[in-house]
Amino acid sequence: MAVYTDVTAEDLSAHLTRYDIGELLSFKGIAEGVENSNFLVHTTAGSFILTLYEKRVDPADLPFFIGLMEHLSARGLTCPQPVKMTSGEALGELAGRPAAIVTFLEGLWIRRPQVHHCAAVGRALADLHLAGEGFALTRRNALSVGGWRPLYERARDRADTVATALGATIAEELEHCERHWPQGLPTGVIHADLFNDNVFFLKDRLSGLIDFYFACNDILAYDLAICLNAWCFSADYEFDFAKGSAMIAAYQAVRPLDGAERAALPLLCRGSALRFLLTRLVDWLNVPPGAVVTPKDPLEYFKKLRFHRKVVSATEYGLS
Amino acid sequence: MAVYTDVTAEDLSAHLTRYDIGELLSFKGIAEGVENSNFLVHTTAGSFILTLYEKRVDPADLPFFIGLMEHLSARGLTCPQPVKMTSGEALGELAGRPAAIVTFLEGLWIRRPQVHHCAAVGRALADLHLAGEGFALTRRNALSVGGWRPLYERARDRADTVATALGATIAEELEHCERHWPQGLPTGVIHADLFNDNVFFLKDRLSGLIDFYFACNDILAYDLAICLNAWCFSADYEFDFAKGSAMIAAYQAVRPLDGAERAALPLLCRGSALRFLLTRLVDWLNVPPGAVVTPKDPLEYFKKLRFHRKVVSATEYGLS
What we know:
Number of helices of chain A: 9
Oligomer: homodimer
CATH superfamily of the largest domain in chain A: Aminoglycoside phosphotransferase (APH), C-terminal lobe
Helix content of chain A: 25-40%
Strand content of chain A: 15-25%
Shape of chain A: globular
Number of domains of chain A: 2
């Protein structure tokens, strides 16, 4: 939540001459995006988001991210649409950083989602999975099952300082997931981070999906499992069956799950809870001194994981 | 440069029902304002700035700041205009903080001002001084000459760690200003912080003045001295006579300086350089561990102060 790179009006005005989006009227650094610097830009042609990609983003991934937003918006998904320069390129350079300008999406993210919000997310996720078909570039998911053990090893020695038996539980889960992770399920482009703050609503209507910087190729139903974890638990981390069943039904109305996906759903939910537990735990244990950003609580996902471990069948998530 | 208070879409939507500015479309925390939390808000009626006043602002000062923006904009000055609730009040409460919504001004601040920018600032400053007449509330300037010695005392012991003989120079200047500070000059509402980032331009036309949170009642010509310091030095802190004379001439075209003001200008310039040297020095010596904000360099104002100490007559600033 910061602006890492300073951009001057003079430099941005000059940069905008490469585009056909009017004259610069104003721009403000916005407190969003942990990884990049983002600016809300007003021009005579409307509102845009300028992103400067900072050091933590691999420049080799940028064609995937930008190409994906182009691909999805061309297929009717409401997501930020990269604006091309008159040269035809969408990726430029500003203030010594790779830079892109995308359309600004109006919308609000919901802190306390209701059942109908969860249904809308299920539908939009299936829309995204279908719209992603045919996208030519690929990006492996560095945070899928193969990436979890290295995270565990960074956290192992101090895991029990966060919660009793946390280390042992993670070790068991990791072993279980590595041994049983499903093979052969339908794959495609997944968002991989479709949390509340990445979904916009206007008057209860879903108005857009944002932040494709974890998007990758992976098991499609794993993306649904991430959303069940992110959206379908109560404030005290009890699974909300009404939300889960609404999300799954809305997903299936667009893209029905096959038998293997249905059978794998509990394990995919365990895996996705473990993935966010691990990344949050590593962040929690490695807060730099004096940091202003409070890391997210890893125990939220420990509680969710404990729920998933007791699940026997996907019907417990509301799969009918 | 931060957002200190978290605001939810649900809470802001509810808050906006107290106003007649349409439906909430989006809002983003913006990386501006050292003291307060600011959000750029889009509604169906346009763009607005929402400010939550944080602990460093004295709530007793808020009626002055908000009333002043109302007073000035009613008199045609282009500054943020507080939006009133249907109750008639402009100051509300949101997320446990005093909160105000003001109109959003398009515009860009200039890093490398030219002579014509300095002229525009001189004219706008005089406009502000005239528009401020008749404003009923008053606020004393805690950072005028009487407020400098306590700052000096906080910095004295470590001043020479920043520059050789800095402490002794400040002591001399302080003594000089306290002894000779002009009495009886015309006073009124001054902006007191009209730096580059508080003045917006669109296509070389001054489009607005912002950030009235240092505004107070003080010597009007002291405000001009602050602007001469902020706008009319080169990047290596040499006084730029062309800029200074353009600013003073443009100011005088609207509000001519009287004889006493003209005579006092060199001392007012010394004083205002000392004021910013002192506040920057205190900030510089008191950076909290792990802070992300880099304090502004106090030596910039030490160099400017050394220039002013050699000035004999206001004609050296371009006063004709």
